[in-house]
């Protein structure tokens, strides 16, 4: 059933058209990914749906009594409540019922002693009715639900009593997300919900949203997250919204196919138009009555032809590559027995080596000290114990997550020119244009820029540094998907060395050649990309694996997650049994094929054409069966 829809929605700011034709429909329990470049109009669409912004044209339909929940990317709030009190406040009506039940219990006890049976019966009826409402409102489980969300979002038990007002902006955003997730909505709109979440928290959120019994619309640049959660995709491009069935990867595949087909049809029609115009021109050159009639006839047919529009140009994206000025030695970085603590221990006994050409991703939970470790390598922070040694001819370039190195009062062009004065104006304007700063944009003050624009300035400065060792702290934050893809290609083709921190699993899969997992007691190295790292971690010893799963189940405390994990384990056991069966069946099938081939070579068989044909048919069946067995074995294993 459709619970929300838009038809021909248009929104402009002055002469800038943001949405030209947004037409869509959302079904119950749809999980929809909203994608498009920065500034395409995704957040504008959300604000129109929630009613905080009015469209210029078009119609918006929301079913009666539909409850909308919305978490903005720019959500900001302050509170003197503790983390626990702030999140549990969502269930204030339930807590009020709880308090009323306690009062009714006191009344029942008092009336039972007084002997007033009529008042007692009425009180007991009210108690039973209220208790039923309390039960249906999750009164017996809401505290466990709150605990599950708090843990899932990466907060520890010790942080429950922490004041919200003392938290960082990222932590407050997680609290805001938790409050939205704990409420009951029919349509939930989330704008970049994975910002400020570490990978375990993102994985928890994926499971939570997949099991949520409501429609969810998600703006996100996290392609891995969209692949896991969504079943439909809305793309906003050049002001037009297009609906696609399937997750992000399926959308990309379908879009490429659709664009290729549209371009082919357009080009073929253009060729046909050119051919007809040439024929018409020849007929007119003959200048005879008959040829002129034929020319006019073809012109009319050409005018009636339904023209195929040329596919819109792809949105502009940055284009650049990192080029080190000189080649470093083979040993780029060596860290031994590093430790660091502030008000608490971050990590200790951390040791690692990074060699020339490696693309190393540093992973670990939020707060473990990944950014601090990068700052230590740059010299901005000092370790408590241990040593950090850079190799020969190593020149470090640092991309900072918070962009604090940018001067907010400078213009874009001065921010670059002051650091690289040897560039002439033409060279500088060309490089800025490659990063989408054109015309008057180069004279904008830095403080007026969006997060994505600041990221592009930082990437340009990093490129101009020609460093051979790049330290990058969350480089994909604030970048749209097109810009992420350009950055991925630039790093993959970079001849230097990279040490980066990122929660973007799609990005890690594409770029990383080594994963270093930072924990409180040291580092573990995995020589591969993110998928390799996940696969290796899943092969922990049975006892340790059991404990990890038990901890995960305790952290979620949600029945839906527990049932899902139970189903997955059952499915895995079923697949393992099937795999064992296939591994027994394949040799038997192969042996039977060899046996038939031996029989076909014997005189008594090849002289008997009927027997020969029977064996030939059986051999073909066995080979087809073997192919199917191998295919199934390959898919399962």
Characterization of the model:
- This protein has 637 residues and is α/β, with parallel strands linked by helices.
- Helix content is 49%, strand content 19%.
- It contains 21 helices and 18 strands.
- It has helices at residues 42-50, 83-88, 92-114, 117-136, 142-152, 169-182, 199-210, 223-229, 248-286, 289-304, 370-378, 412-417, 425-434, 451-465, 481-492, 505-511, 530-537, 542-556, 559-600, 603-606, 609-636; strands at residues 2-13, 16-27, 31-35, 57-62, 68-71, 187-191, 215-219, 232-237, 240-245, 331-341, 345-355, 359-363, 385-390, 396-399, 469-473, 497-501, 514-519, 522-526.
- The strands form 4 sheets. The protein has a 6-stranded mixed sheet with strand order 5-6-7-3-8-9, sandwiched between helices. It has a 6-stranded mixed sheet with strand order 14-15-16-12-17-18, with helices on both faces.
- A hairpin with a 2-residue loop joins β8 (232-237) and β9 (240-245).
- The protein is globular.
- The model is unreliable at 542-548 (pLDDT under 50).
Q: Which descriptors would you attach to this protein?
A:
six-stranded mixed β-sheet; single chain; 5 domains; 637 residues; Rossmann fold; 19% strand; alpha/beta
